[in-house]
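# step 3/5: fold
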Amino acid sequence: MSQEHASAQPEDQPVVRYAVEGAVATVTLDSPANRNALSRRLVAGFLDGLDRAAADPDVRVVVVAATGRVFCSGADLSEAASGSMEEGARTIVELQRRILAHPTPVVVRAQGPVRAGGTGIVAAADVAVCAREATFALTEVKLGLAPAAISLTVLPRMTSRSAALAALGGEVFDAEAAEASGLVTRVVAAEELDAAVAEVCASFASGSAQGLRETKRLLNRTLLADVEARGDDLAALSASLFGSEEAKAAMTAFLSRGRKQRG
C-alpha cells in the first residue's frame, strides 16, 4: 500500500461523489490532490456510497470511477506514518467485504494507475474495465510491508505465478499483463473506456434485482467466506507491519523524497 501523496483535499470539499442515472449508481473517488489515496475520509465516503446504492431499489449496478490521472494510489502514507494503521487496515478489509457482498454487481472503471491497496478495490469488484494506459503495482514489499489486507481478493483473482511476480517484485505491470493475470476483465483504449463500461452496465441492468443478487452471491460465496474468516487476522498483520520500525523508516524516507521532488 504505497504511493507518493501530495497535500490532502481541503476539508470542505467532498472526496467521494455519488450519482445515479437510470439503473446505474456511480461512486467517484474525487481526491486527485493525493491521487485518490485510501484516506479515512475517502474510505468513509466510499462505504457511504455503497450503502446508498444498496438501499436504492432502482439501482441494478454500481460503477466505481475516479477523477484525475490516478485511479487509486493505495493507503494514505501520511496517515499511516503518523499513527496506528489498525483501524485503516480493518476498513480496507471491510471495503472489500462490502463490495463482494453488495446486492448489485460492482464495476470498476480504471482510467489510470492503480497501486497497492487500490488493487484490492479492483480485485473485489465483479468486473474491472481499464484503459490501456492504466498500470498496476503491489508496492508494499518495497516499504517493508506485505499486501496482507488486499490478499483476500487479489490473490484469488490472479494466477499464482503472476501474483508471486507482482507481490515479491513490487514492480509496475501494464494493463495487458493485469488482464492476462485475471486481475482485470477487459482492457480498452482510453477513448473507448466510457463506452465499454456503459456496455457492461447495460447488460447487468437488464437483469432482475433478485437474479443479480443471487447470482452474485453464488459467484462470491468462497471469496466472501474467506474475507469473513481471515479478515481480522490479516488486518492485524497489516497493522503490525505498518507499525514496525523498518516500515516506519521506509515510509518516512519515501514521503521525504516526495516532498523534495515537489519542492
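# step 4/5: annotate
The chain has a mean pLDDT of 92.
# step 5/5: archive (pending)
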